[in-house]
Amino acid sequence: MADESWRTPAIVQELAAAGVEEPPSRYVLGEKDRSDELVAAELPEPIPVVDLSQLAGTDEVAKLRAALQNWGFFLLTNHGVEASLMDDVLNLAREFFNQPIERKRKFSNLIDGKNFQVEGYGTDRVVTQDQILDWSDRLFLRVEPTEERNLAFWPDHPESFRDVLNEYASGTKRIRDDIIQAMSKLLELDEDYFFDRLNKAPALARFNYYPPCPRPDLVFGVRPHSDGSLLTILLVDEDVGGLQIQRDGKWYNVQVSPHTLLINLGDTMEVLCNGIFRSPVHRVVTNAEEDRISLAMFYSVNDEKDIGPAAGLLDENRPARYRKVSVGEFRAGIIGKFSRRERYIDSLKI
């Protein structure tokens, strides 16, 4: 029988704790991807900031439009999620990741220790032996629809983890709805256009843990990618940077303000709005001294309708820029391309 141990790489936190001086070769970028590959500039302008409490006003809507057209992401303030709750979410995540590996393996994303599934604790899917791996571990949980939550993957320690995540997810779902409603107005679409796609739509929480890395010049925390979601709401460790975003072929460092949320569009939204707003390519670089925690809430669409440009945005002067596909094909394409550092959305362009 062929050796397929390459499909189940080590937990990165365990590698870091062992004090490796050089990352294993599976994590190291190839020669052509090195040199200045991980160097990024400071943003040429401040990160766009949108005040959710003022989003009904003309000025704030104009800020939202500019942010989505120029960057595809923005910082959200006055969003209604308590600062203490945001702190609790990240602190509990850190407490989970800092538990002994035996306790965390109860929530493993490997069936029988070898067959990958999306939900659970571990590393990302490994598709090929030559795939360059990311220097991060993750805990992936389905939070919506609530009746489809698999609590067998939800940590029971720390004891308050489930209740705090549930409360936080309720807040971010409300934020999703407010932003989607505003985007419908910006695009002059019927208000129900997006909401018709959100009934029983999946939402996934991804907790990311990035241990210190001995060679941050050679290793990605997360490889360059764009999210496959409709919308992503990101809560990041404000004390340790690492997130970078790409525009016009250049990489820029992203710094957040305390207790703000970073909102970015996903590929699903880019297709639905026919490229009027773009899904940004981003990545995470590693840090030699400090670890880092983040939580991404991925909001997607349900399986009832295909993913393609909205009819209300098309006419003889504005043809479709992407072909229509089923939700299942779209999700499979996103997963397949991610491991190869490719964007599935590029294959949909007409």
UniProtKB/TrEMBL annotation:
The keyword Metal-binding applies. Keywords: Iron, Metal-binding, Oxidoreductase. One of its GO terms (molecular function) is oxidoreductase activity. It comes from the Eukaryota. Residues 199-301 form the Fe2OG dioxygenase domain. Belongs to the iron/ascorbate-dependent oxidoreductase family. This is Fe2OG dioxygenase domain-containing protein. It comes from Oryza meridionalis.
